[in-house]
Structures are given as structure tokens and as C-alpha cells.
Hints:
Blueprint: E1 4-12, H1 16-27, E2 36-39, H2 81-95, E3 106-111, E4 117-121, E5 124-133, E6 155-158, E7 172-176, H3 180-189, E8 195-200, E9 206-207, H4 213-228, H5 237-240, E10 242-243, H6 246-254, E11 259-261, E12 265-267, E13 270-272, E14 278-280, E15 283-286, E16 311-312, E17 315-316, E18 322-324, H7 333-351
Parallel strand pairs: 1-2, 1-5, 5-18, 6-15, 7-8, 7-15, 8-11, 9-10
Antiparallel strand pairs: 3-4, 4-5, 12-13, 13-14, 16-17
Amino acid sequence: MNEMREVDVAVIGAGQAGLAAAYHLRRTGFEPERDFVVLDHSPGPGGAWQFRWPSLTYGRVHGMHALPGRELTGADPARPSSEVIAEYFTDYERAFDLRVRRPVDVTAVREGANGRLLVESSDGTWATKALINATGTWDRPFWPRYPGQESFRGRQFHTARYPGPEAFAGLRVVVVGGGASGTQHLLELAPYAAATTWVTRRPPVFREGPFDEDAGRAAVALVEERVRQGLPPKSVVSVTGLPLNDAIRQGLADGVLDRLPMFDRITPDGVEWKDGRRVSADVILWATGFRPAVDHLAPLRLREPGGGIRVEGTRAVVDPRVHLVGYGPSASTIGANRAGRAAVRDIRRLLAEPAGEPVAA
Length: 361
């Protein structure tokens, strides 16, 4: 499609951060389809949640914070989170008339005429005065590379395509990764698998006691400092550690969470270390996290030498027309809500500037 349309604000992504931003745009007087547009590449509402594995029930979700203006109440904790949250997002989009366009693939954002940005997509090109990028990380699973990886005769999965524990019945499974997903997979797999092995680059850090508001602010500040320096963001979990709950304690006691250092190479039949130790495996499950899905922003040259996009609040320092929400410190669900509000506040100020004022830093 070659159709060109103009809006004041384009929102890319309709997960938690994108919907929060759209809500605040609507609430402050912007009209969908006239003043702003929301483009989402997913087949339906639910953001990345709609792709989560069926065994991740709503009761096991860590810290799902409600979207602004509408609580999520009465959800059955035994239902898959993918179903619960997809229904909640569907209701939310309808209640606030956000008119999300999907499925729409955004291929590039580049400089246009008259100070506008051009958002090129499968739905045509949108010329916008400001951009809220809320594309998250789910579409960029991180697969580390190790010698011999192509020779492995078994199967390799990433958390992004984890099929649930039943798929591993009777198999020897190596789980790679020290985050929340890695430990969840291990605890879930253990009753089904013939054997499990847990490997991580660094020893896992388990956090005792409650994770209060002060601790949360301190953790977010560490992640925020990285993006302020233009470094690739780390997850909040990477600086908070893993909560030492009853399930984790039982896993440690049972030996399921008996961690080994990272292997050095992959063999056709498993993995091995330089000291000669070997573990046979039928499956390697990479719980190695995700990277921000921002390749479509490459024409704007926002990246710093450190590899990340330098951000102040939600605003890209190189180009204040561009706001990144759900990026770095705002990657949590509550952080995404706050980021959506902050981005809209900044954009309202930007759009109120006299015509002809420079918009790029």
C-alpha cells in the first residue's frame, strides 16, 4: 500500500505500554484515527501475553499490573494467562475505543518532510509529528552462539516457543539461563523429564524477604542509568535477583535447581566443558531472554556507540519526537503504564511548540 496519511502521533505496538500510551492520548483529547493511530503486528489483542505457553496460568504470573483506567478483576487463577490477558486487552481496547489496527507490520521509520516522521508499514505510510514506540522484546528472542551448536542432533527451543512441560516427557533437558523463566521451566519440567541440567553464565542470586517499593525504585534506577548512558538495557530482574519463594526453596532442596557453570561447547549428543565434563541431552532449552525490537528505527540512527538508544525519561535524546515505552526501566507492567503517561505529557509539550521550531536534538 502506498497511501500516505497524516496524524499527530503514531503508536507502534499494542501491548501494555502501547495501550497505556493510547489511553492517555485519548484521555487528553486526541481522537483515534484522526489525531493518532495505533499499529500492532499481532493477530489479536493481548500483546506478548497471547503467545505465552499454556501452562503459565494467570495465578503464576509475576506482578501483572492493571492498565490505567480499568482493573482486571475476577480472573480465574487456573486459566492460562494468554487467555485471561488477551480477553482483558480486548475489553480494554473496546471500552476506550482505541481502534487498534492489526495485523500491521511496521518495516521502517525514517525522516520525512516538514519535520514529520514517516512510518512505513503494511497498512501504508503514516506521516506523524511524534512517535511512541512500544514494540517490546518478544519478537527478538536472544539465542547465544556456542561452538558445535549446529551439530546437535536433539531439539533446541527458546522460551519464546516453549511448548509446555508435557513436550519434554522422558527426555534429558539442559535449561540455559538464570532468570525467572529458566527457573520456572526447570521446576515445571522436572516431574516430566528423564533428567534436567541447569546451566547459567553467573551464579544465580536469590533474594530473601519482601521486594518493597524502595527496593523496586533502586532496581529501576540501575536499569535507567544504563539507557541514559546509551547502553543496551538490562532487565529489572537482572538487578533484583530471583525471589526465594516456596517453589524455589523446594527446587533447591530437591536438587532441581543445582546450577552448573556455562558449558563451553555443544556436541551432537549434549554439552561439554573444558575440564572434560559432559552431559547428554535430547533438548536444549534457551531461557536466555530477549532484546528490544527496534530494528525498524534504524533509519533514524538513534543508537549510541554503546549499542543502545540513549533515553531521558522515555524520550530518545537524539530525536525528541521519538519516545520509547516498555524499554529498559519501563519494561515492567507498572513501568509501562507510567511510561505511557510520561510520553504523552512530553509529546503534548512538543506539539505545542511554535511552528518552525527545531524538533531534533
